[in-house]
Amino acid sequence: MKLSTLFSNQPDIEITGLAMDSRRVKTGNVFFCIEGLEADGHDFAGKAVEAGAVAIVHSKDIPEQKGIVYIKSNHVGDELNRACDIFNGRPSSSLTVFGVTGTNGKSTTSSIISDIYSAKEPCGYMGTIAVRYGSYSRVPTLTTPDQIEVHADLAEMVDHGMKAAAMEVSSHGLAMGRVDTVDFDCAIFTNLTYDHLDYHKTMENYFEAKKILFKNIKKDGVAVLNADDEASIDGLKACCNCRYVTYGTGVLGKADYQAEDISLSTKGTTFVLNCKGERYPVSTNLVALYNIYNLLAAIGAMHECGMPIEQMLPLIEDIPQVDGRMEIIDEGQDFNVIVDYAHTPDGFDKVFEYADEITKNGGGIIAVFGSAGKRDKVKRKILGQIAGRHCRTVVVTEEDPRNEKAEDIGAEIMSGVKESGCKGIFVPDRIEAIDKAMSLARKGDLVLILGKGDESYMYYEDGRAPFIGDNEAAKRAIKKLV
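The line above is the sequence of UDP-N-acetylmuramyl-tripeptide synthetase; the predicted structure tokens follow.
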């Protein structure tokens, strides 16, 4: 592509790609000087030129080198978003794009949409679990990667025959403008609870970041809102730039997509879907009430984007397991084991509510979890308190400690566990902690392994290291016992 295609009144020189990290610049790239939280791209413009950049987009005065095109703009981030979209052929305009945001449930809701909507037309997925389309899947860099990667991934999906895409959209991604030029057709909100205050500082700021998706969506798009989420529903209705529909169980009033007569079990769930006056019997392998909310959100989104409910119903009966999300691990043991990604106070409340339901006949709960380093520290004690109220034993361990000591993080969690009167054990190595939990389990007990899910990496001070995932670690631990 010519530089003049991206920027008017610029030379017709060929460009090979876009970059915002000087370490990733290749010959013929355009480098964008983005001012980040920890570094300013203007300081690395010279490095970008050395690496082969032919043009620099900047807002501050920087030393210029002969033969390099310098483009000054007051809004480098806006230029980057626009350029990413154009350079990749405006891929999102060729797709039906579902954007899912909220504190919890983004991965499950997006995965359900990708799996079920693909019966109507091929639908890719982008989020915490993977970048996935068709039979292809790879580990993601972030829940919502940077602008360059987002548009490149969408273009890749288009090239491989996808007609739709379901994207998790994080509050960080929204606040940093990573999806500003993605053409969303449907914006879905799961729930609003305490999280990421290390970055956003206040719940008001956190919610404002989430609202960006709904303020920016095109007028002929549709928003799907949680009618039972008192913290978000009124604010989202007020800020939506498009029409909206609601889903829920009738807790706060009638919803457009409402689950009634809900029957939960350890094997699945049944309910009646009341959709704008029409009633449909629904049977699904999904367990726990919060997953029914995720399913309702997905049903509403897919139906509003043209998929008949009658086409969904047989597919909903056996939804593919979302790895690491309420994943039941059965290797022949006489106790239950569930792996889940829950890592927020609200997520813990919901998981333990379900855990109490399935162990009320005499079994005890053993939980394994930690809390991320260099992240919200306030929730650590809260997580310990929640687990302590429900568990017989809590095994605290490492969980992406980054530049902190797992022992120090563990001590903060343990203070909450002990405050609740529960027995707590600290085992620094996560795989050994899972082994320990399994050794403590008795017939009829439930072992909950929370926080990492199927993530195949662990963050330490020197970066990302391989990890087998909680689900695989659980399987190996059980096999040692049985």
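Note on the example: The mean pLDDT is 94. The first helix runs from residue 3 to 6.
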